[in-house]
Amino acid sequence: MTFSVAGRNNCAVVAGEPYVYARTDEGAFVMRARCPHRGGPLHLAGLSPERNRLVCPWHERKTSLTRLRQEIPAVRRGDIVTAVFPGQPDAAVGFGHRPLSVDLAG
Description:
This protein is mainly β. It has one helix spanning 65-71, and strands at residues 2-4, 11-14, 17-24, 27-32, 46-47, 53-55, 62-64, 74-77, 80-83, 93-96. Helices cover 7% and strands 39% of the residues.
């Protein structure tokens, strides 16, 4: 699936799960926009002091950037990213907007 890196359609929603394109000092990647702990807004997460983990704004759960970078294969070309999402090929797909934290908009 192809979606925008930033702006109005920067969030791909696949089978009800939102994904965004994020950029940090560690690199760029497509990630789930919800925290795996309790569904918090991971797209609003900040970086840990070590800058190698995202910290969920709801419960301060830390998620490894290395793990996030390996979950969703993706390629960026200009302002568009193409990613391969898990799940069924006939899953419902939509687009929307999710603001990114300063740490993820790098």
